[in-house]
Amino acid sequence: MNNGAGRRINGAAEEDDDEDDVNGDLDAWERTYTDERSWESLQEDESGMLRPIDNQALYHSQYRRRLRSLSSTAARIQKGLIRYLYIVIDLSRAASEMDFRPSRIAVIAKHVETFIREFFYQNPLSQVGIVTIKDGVAHCLTDIGGSPESHINALMKKLECSGDSSLQNALDLVDGYLNQIPSYGHREVLILYSALSTCDPGDIMDTIQKCRKSKIRCSVIGLAAEMFICKHLCQETGGTYSVALDESHFKELILEHAPPPPAIAEFAVANLIKMGFPQRAAEGSISICSCHKEAKVGAGYTCPRCKARACELPTECCVCGLTLVSSPHLARSYHHLFPIAPFDEVTSSHLNNPNCKLQRNCFGCQQSLLDPVFGLRKQTRACRCVPEVQTNATC
Amino acid sequence: MKFLIEDVTVYFPYDHIYPEQYCYMIELKRTLDAKGHCLLEMPTGTGKTIALLSLITSYCLSKPQSPMKLIYCTRTVHEMEKTLAELKILHNYQIKHLGPQARILAIGLSSRKNLCVNPTVVAAENRDSVDAGCRKLTASWVRALASENPDVAMCEFFENYEKAASAAVLPPGVYTLQELRAFGKEKGWCPYFLARHMVQFANVVVYSYQYLLDPKVAGIISKEMQKESVVVFDEAHNIDNVCIEALSVSVRRKTLEGATWNLSRISQEIDRFKATDASILRAEYNRLVEGLALRGNLPITDNWLSNPALPDDILKEAVPGNIRRAEHFLHVLRRLVQYLSGRLDTENVEKESPVGFVASLSSHAGIDQKTLKFCYDRLHSLMLTLEITDTDEFLHIQTICDFATLVGTYGRGFSIIIEPFDERMPHIPDPVLQLSCHDASLAIKPVFDRFQSVLITSGTLSPIDLYPRLLNFHPVVSRSFTMSLTRDCICPMVLTRGSDQLPVSTKFDMRSDPGVVRNYGKLLLEMVSVVPDGIVCFFVSYSYMDGIINTWNDSGILKLVFIETQDVVETTLALDNYRRACDSGRGAVFFSVARGKVAEGIDFDRHYGRLVIMIGVPFQYTLSKILLARLEYLRDTFQIKEGDFLTFDALRQAAQCVGRVIRSKADYGMMIFADKRYSRHDKRSKLPSWILSHLQDANLNLSTDMALHIAREFLKKMAQPYDKTGSSDKKTLLSQEELEKLGDGSMHEMSY
């Protein structure tokens, strides 16, 4: 209750401030409140009582979830590393609603940007395209491609919302595009759906079956409430359906789609793919790049097969169609298949044991793991960081 | 799983059990031990039926020395099938664990319409014509005729059944109506008569309320049930109305015209018989003189609906002399019809007690009470004598005799009301004479008296202390259970104000206020924008619904909606399209009426109903003469205040409406009670406890915008994945070990 009282007093203090316009010299006790904003760490429970937000439980559940996902990957699940993902953004009237601040669409755009960057960071061999739904019609905003910047730029220019939403039109459009991609690619759709209904020209069930047949994995993140048709779509096509509670939850949900999902069993045939590892062109050499059709100085890559010039990696050579990657890209994708084993938890009592051979300092930051100043925080972080195989402790 | 409740080993076909099911079983077991009646309320979606069935069958199995029969009454054929399907799962499980000694015979019994397999008969459109069609082929005299003349059509299924005679038995097992028909087809036996025959031997019989409550039907179907039976009335929140309807008759002008026509047809028949074979009529006369029982030794196919009065009230004596001869009886009926049509010509609303009515009848038409009493049996006998098979043509005269017998038998608990026109449409003359029963306990009394245990159960029986008073019995157990939930998946709200803070209500003086109508429209419109998939909206009456929709239409605030109408076919079509709209993600609103067919029998579970809005308090039409008479009777006889009864009745309807939305624990839904009167304690406290326990104080007095906010939050919260078994402190699914660990003590906290 301390905090509640503090809040009230603080509120009064702020009013005084407004009147007197003396923001600079707050008393020390006032400053602790304004700095720490302690009321934000409170939440109301069912009976209207104030309680501190249970961060401990939150961290713990996250930790458990990570452990679980790791143990599931330990079973060596085949994953689709070369993903062709269409992000479908609903720009219907509902997307302009203000229940997320400042508006749903602003929040979506912000996090789609983060997502695209994260996606390419984790899946350098994959490609993304963006489709928008507006006035009941689906448009392809950007073609499928490997450059995060072009997608983000294109998206930021087009954020007006109007009209109804149509799931079927979007699925039909995406289905048409994804059918053209090579068979080793994994087809995915991520739909960010604001509306609560869909206005379709035909029977959407047929479209869902069509997607299922062409093995497109459809996932939906809803922003308002659970819709039956979305749930049905995800169940049929093997995707996930989730509904965002608030902005941070939305971010969490969308980022969950960044690591590659398990491959659909019948689809997971082993394929050999031809790839080229281009050399970086020498500084100062001038050549016409094949992607922009412009003469460029330096900074580019030369295709090992046809010697054409590409600006960015990874990409597909415009001339001979060879997939061009660099070895770090492959390595980054590779770690999804062989993730680091889960760390062992080391209790502080264990560390205090003089017989213990483990280091008492963090391998990473050299802080003592037993440091009382860092207390709990250190301990919990250390819990999640000490790997079984490493003799060096990390934090 | 199996577990012990006191001394009974209960076989339960699932691996997990809800705690409330366990409590429910304990209470049931106590009732059975005490051989008394009970009243149990448990919300829908908690597995009432299976808990009930598994306890009772297990109880029977554990006490083989005292065989018990289970009579399970449902409201609809659909529910009957569902119950039998559950019983089948249970039965298979018990056989797996106990071997062949657990074998039972369970059958569902329904009308010919649902059981007939003869393609020519079952093609008829309604129940009465199927019955008549069957009689045409199977009546004893038709069959006698057919044995001489091969051109006369007969039902081969019935003939095969007759030929098999005592060999025609069902092997033990659980038979749904479908399976019964399939069995009948395969063997070539008539499933209807087979079922009728097997009812006496079956361990479990599932049929509709009428078979026990309506004396006309009960007299032939249920009279041989042994005393050691357990009778279950499922979904029994409207049982008092069923009882009352069973004993009420209404006569319209059409009925009288039909009756007159029937009478002339009968008199023609009599003339024909006189000319050809007068001995039959004479034989009948002699039989009546001797006062022989009319029923009893008749073949099963000639059985007709028996006397509408309750068995105890039928006089065991000979038919009075003045109606023994067929012509005399016809004269009496003619005078009666004439008298009734004279009464129907009245300009004013009249209300009379049966005693007064009989007195005026005897002074004007010269028919005394005793004659009236025998009308029904006499007509029955006459029609058998005249070998009339197309009974569906004679419904009108049957109604008249029905009426006569009831009027002659009962002096109390009834009244006769003549209305020259419908109250709501005073310009269209539509005279109706109603004999309405006020006392629900009359029809159900024989059931309570005859059977060892009667269980009345439903999702909404609140307030639970009113039912024993209405039905006039003493339950040994009456209890209300709540639902144990892993999450708060129902969200009831009471909305008292519109966005403009003006109160909303369907109170008579407020309902036509444009502001109120607009606020209701706004509420619906705003809710549509935040709730996905299906929304159901209940109104208090058809006329109010029509009015309000018209107003909304004029002010242009309507979207894709489906509306229940009084036409069954149209409603079914609307429902079908509504479901399609919900499935395809379009979303839709269904407008319906409390007390309508939809409110009683159709489920709006899962995405078919995420929100139900109850607009107004569904009070009965309080100016109705019948209702007034009944209220008066209730006050005088049972000391139930008019207001109490009206509120009780309205709230149980409201609870029934909103209860449509949630059918299982995995489901979720919101309920909005949109009327300022719901916030009053006397109204609210009559809601079932499972709704009340989720109705937070904060949600009691909301305006539209606040409700909107709550709805948004609720829907987001419910869309999150959750753990079905519940976390450790809030266990909602118990496995066998957990159940064994559980002492009795902790279980009792669950119920209240």
From TrEMBL, chain A:
<dbReference type="GO" id="GO:0006351">
    <property type="term" value="P:DNA-templated transcription"/>
</dbReference>
<keyword id="KW-0539">Nucleus</keyword>
<feature type="compositionally biased region" description="Acidic residues">
    <location>
        <begin position="13"/>
        <end position="24"/>
    </location>
</feature>
<dbReference type="InterPro" id="IPR012170">
    <property type="entry name" value="TFIIH_SSL1/p44"/>
</dbReference>
<feature type="zinc finger region" description="C4-type">
    <location>
        <begin position="303"/>
        <end position="320"/>
    </location>
</feature>
<keyword id="KW-0479">Metal-binding</keyword>
<keyword id="KW-0234">DNA repair</keyword>
<dbReference type="GO" id="GO:0005675">
    <property type="term" value="C:transcription factor TFIIH holo complex"/>
</dbReference>
<comment type="similarity">
    <text>Belongs to the GTF2H2 family.</text>
</comment>
<feature type="region of interest" description="Disordered">
    <location>
        <begin position="1"/>
        <end position="27"/>
    </location>
</feature>
<dbReference type="InterPro" id="IPR002035">
    <property type="entry name" value="VWF_A"/>
</dbReference>
<keyword id="KW-0804">Transcription</keyword>
<dbReference type="GO" id="GO:0006357">
    <property type="term" value="P:regulation of transcription by RNA polymerase II"/>
</dbReference>
<keyword id="KW-0862">Zinc</keyword>
<keyword id="KW-0805">Transcription regulation</keyword>
<dbReference type="GO" id="GO:0008270">
    <property type="term" value="F:zinc ion binding"/>
</dbReference>
<dbReference type="GO" id="GO:0000439">
    <property type="term" value="C:transcription factor TFIIH core complex"/>
</dbReference>
<dbReference type="InterPro" id="IPR036465">
    <property type="entry name" value="vWFA_dom_sf"/>
</dbReference>
<dbReference type="GO" id="GO:0006289">
    <property type="term" value="P:nucleotide-excision repair"/>
</dbReference>
<dbReference type="InterPro" id="IPR007198">
    <property type="entry name" value="Ssl1-like"/>
</dbReference>
<dbReference type="Pfam" id="PF04056">
    <property type="entry name" value="Ssl1"/>
</dbReference>
<keyword id="KW-0227">DNA damage</keyword>
UniProtKB/TrEMBL annotation, chain B:
<dbReference type="GO" id="GO:0006289">
    <property type="term" value="P:nucleotide-excision repair"/>
</dbReference>
<keyword id="KW-0479">Metal-binding</keyword>
<keyword id="KW-0347">Helicase</keyword>
<keyword id="KW-0539">Nucleus</keyword>
<dbReference type="InterPro" id="IPR010643">
    <property type="entry name" value="HBB"/>
</dbReference>
<dbReference type="GO" id="GO:0045951">
    <property type="term" value="P:positive regulation of mitotic recombination"/>
</dbReference>
<dbReference type="GO" id="GO:0003684">
    <property type="term" value="F:damaged DNA binding"/>
</dbReference>
<dbReference type="InterPro" id="IPR006554">
    <property type="entry name" value="Helicase-like_DEXD_c2"/>
</dbReference>
<dbReference type="InterPro" id="IPR045028">
    <property type="entry name" value="DinG/Rad3-like"/>
</dbReference>
<comment type="similarity">
    <text>Belongs to the helicase family. RAD3/XPD subfamily.</text>
</comment>
<dbReference type="InterPro" id="IPR013020">
    <property type="entry name" value="Rad3/Chl1-like"/>
</dbReference>
<dbReference type="InterPro" id="IPR001945">
    <property type="entry name" value="RAD3/XPD"/>
</dbReference>
<keyword id="KW-0408">Iron</keyword>
<dbReference type="Pfam" id="PF06777">
    <property type="entry name" value="HBB"/>
</dbReference>
<dbReference type="GO" id="GO:0051539">
    <property type="term" value="F:4 iron, 4 sulfur cluster binding"/>
</dbReference>
<keyword id="KW-0004">4Fe-4S</keyword>
<dbReference type="GO" id="GO:0046872">
    <property type="term" value="F:metal ion binding"/>
</dbReference>
<dbReference type="Pfam" id="PF13307">
    <property type="entry name" value="Helicase_C_2"/>
</dbReference>
<dbReference type="GO" id="GO:0005634">
    <property type="term" value="C:nucleus"/>
</dbReference>
<keyword id="KW-0238">DNA-binding</keyword>
<keyword id="KW-0547">Nucleotide-binding</keyword>
<keyword id="KW-0234">DNA repair</keyword>
